[in-house]
Structures are given as structure tokens and as C-alpha cells.
Design goal:
The protein has two domains: 42 residues, no CATH class; 162 residues. The protein is of the alpha+beta class. α1 packs antiparallel against α3, α1 runs antiparallel to α6 and α4 packs antiparallel against α7. β3 and β4 form a beta hairpin. The strands form three sheets. The chain has a three-stranded antiparallel sheet with strand order 6-5-7. A two-stranded antiparallel ribbon has the order 1-2. Bound molecules: zinc ion. Zinc ion binds next to loops.
């Protein structure tokens, strides 16, 4: 039997039939021939789209971490709650382990992920750095499961609901920045699969 590389195979999520992945030329979407479930889409202008989206995601991340996510009134004084403030407070209160884990999961890893993503897309658009991009794509695959910024948003919302009874709260600029960041981040990690980026890598540097 002919051996097919695993990344050229795709399994239908409905009926579990294995299909060989082909490059879509005329059609936009590939369907399962057993149950007509959608298998995958063709991404038009993926290189430009992913570059633009990752840049936008990086900008929203910078916005989300630079300004107040919420402003809280305690005893007549308004406090700005920023993302770095959360870690500083955890460390000040001597929650070192929690502080370290939290800062990695909701700050360091998402930041690394998006910075590497932007860099990868920039190099691919410039058609340079074949080996560097290959290594960075492997790094992205390792970081992906640890990118948990969505969980942070949920914790913030839970904390806000609890606080609303006690203090006056206003949403800051960064709250909307954070929401925009999380939505874009989910799109980048869920709608554009790593396999698509590998295909793009293959295509980009093969033509050289
Ligand atoms: Zn199927």
C-alpha cells in the first residue's frame, strides 16, 4: 500500500471516514462523500489574511494590557485594574506560585504566541527564513494548548459579577480591547488550523 503522510489525511468528524486531503482549486469547501459533512475550507489569500489578522490581534493585546480593564470605586477612590496589576498584586500578597502560573497562562504565553505568529506571517510574506519559520511553527504547536486567555475573560466576568454588589465598577478601554483580542485570538487559533499554516509554509518556500 502506498504510504500517505499523516498531514495529508483528514477524518470526518461525523462518520469517521478517512479522506485524503487535496488542494481545492474550484470549490471552496470539501465535503465528506459518505455523510456530506464539511471536511475543510479553502482559505483565499491566507498569507495576507493571517498576517493582517495577527497584527490586529497583537494591537488589541497591547491595548488590553496597557490600560485599565475595569475601574473600581472603593471608599470613594477609583482604582484602575490593569492586566499587569493583577500579577503584581498576586506577588505582593505572596501568592508566588499562583502568580507565576496565572501570569504565564494569561499573559506570557498569549503574548509569545501572538508575537511569534506575527513574525511567522511576516517572514512568509517576505518569502524568507524557511528554517526559522519551520522552527517557529513547531513552537506555535507547543504553545497552542497553553494559550488560555479565554479562561481569563471568564474569571474576570465571574469576579465582576461578585464585585458588583460591593463596589461601583466601570469598564475601561482595555476591557473592550481584551474582548476584541480574545475573539481574534480564537479566530486565529480555531479557524486557521496549524495544518493550513504548514501547507502555506510548504507552498511559500517550494516555489523558490
Ligand atoms: Zn462523513
Amino acid at each position: 500500500m502506498e504510504e500517505i503522510p499523516l498531514d495529508k489525511l483528514i477524518i470526518c468528524s461525523e462518520c469517521h471516514t478517512v479522506h485524503r486531503k487535496i488542494r481545492l482549486k474550484d470549490a471552496k469547501t470539501a465535503y465528506c462523500n459518505e455523510c456530506e459533512n464539511i471536511l475543510y475550507h479553502r482559505h483565499d489569500n491566507l498569507k495576507e489574511k493571517a498576517f493582517a489578522l495577527s497584527l490586529a490581534t497583537l494591537i488589541t493585546f497591547l491595548t488590553a494590557s496597557s490600560f485599565a480593564i475595569v475601574k473600581i470605586e472603593i471608599n470613594g477612590v477609583w482604582h484602575d485594574l490593569t492586566l499587569p496589576f493583577v500579577f503584581v498584586t498576586l506577588f505582593k500578597e505572596e501568592f508566588f506560585v499562583v502568580g507565576l502560573i496565572v501570569s504565564f497562562l494569561i499573559f506570557v504565553i498569549p503574548m509569545l504566541y501572538i508575537v511569534i505568529y506575527v513574525f511567522v506571517m511576516m517572514l512568509m510574506n517576505l518569502k524568507t527564513g524557511r528554517e526559522t519559520v519551520r522552527k517557529l511553527l513547531v513552537t506555535l504547536a507547543m504553545l497552542r494548548p497553553w494559550n488560555m486567555i479565554e479562561i481569563f475573560l471568564i474569571s474576570i466576568l465571574v469576579a465582576l459579577v461578585k464585585l458588583i454588589g460591593y463596589a461601583q465598577i466601570e469598564f475601561g478601554v482595555s476591557f473592550w480591547g481584551l474582548i476584541a483580542f480574545i475573539l481574534l485570538d480564537i479566530y486565529l487559533t480555531k479557524a486557521i488550523r496549524l495544518a493550513d499554516l504548514w501547507d502555506l509554509w510548504d507552498e511559500t518556500y517550494r516555489q523558490k
